[in-house]
Structures are given as structure tokens and as C-alpha cells.
TrEMBL record:
GO terms for cellular component: plasma membrane. GO terms for molecular function: metal ion binding; P-type calcium transporter activity. This is Magnesium-transporting ATPase (P-type). Coiled coil: none annotated.
Amino acid sequence: MTPVQILWLNMVLTITLGLGLAFEPSESGVMGRPPRRRDAPILSRFLVWRIGFVSLLLTAGVFFVFDYALRRGLGEDGARTMVVNVLVVMEIFYLFNVRYLYTTSFRLNGAMGTPAVLGAVVAVVVA
């Protein structure tokens, strides 16, 4: 990717989607959960595993699309453009996945999102 594409991803995509999550209401039952132990790490084993797994999926997807575009004869510029677009789509799907930690996003509430999340997705797609 070019430096401009990386800047666009960092400044437009992540900030816009992050702002959409900032206005997300908390999960149901969050106040009923016991607090973490004082000596517990901030990132549990499950969260570290989840971060690593998602990172591997995103990386594999990007490399697959880049290789696919080059094999189709699009050239390096076309392959870079496809990588950026696929990364944007994958980040949008991840936004809907990361909204809930203990419940699934595969239900009507999870798929629809709040107005802030939907506004962030529309803003990223339009940009």
C-alpha cells in the first residue's frame, strides 16, 4: 500500500468506526457481572486469542486479495486499490462483530446497529 492509503486507513477508517463504537450502549447485564480481580490482566487469554485470530484473518485476506489481483493482471496499483477496499469491508464486518463481547452479533440487534454505528459505516463507505 502507498503511504496515502495507509494514512487514509488510519485516519478516516479507524477513527470514524471508533467514534461509532464510542456511542454504543453497553451490553445487557454488564452491571450484573462481578468486577475483575485486582491482579487480573487487562487483556484476558480469550481477548489475546481473539485479537490474534482476527489479525491473522485480516492479514490472510489482504494477502489473498493482493495475490488474486496480480494473477488477474490488474497490476500493482489495481491490486493495492483492491486491498484497501477489501480491508475497509473487513473492518466494517469486524465493527459489527466486536460490538458484543459475550453475546453474538448474528441477530437483528447486532446486524442493524445503533444510529451512530450505521452513520459511521455510511461515512466510511461514502469517503
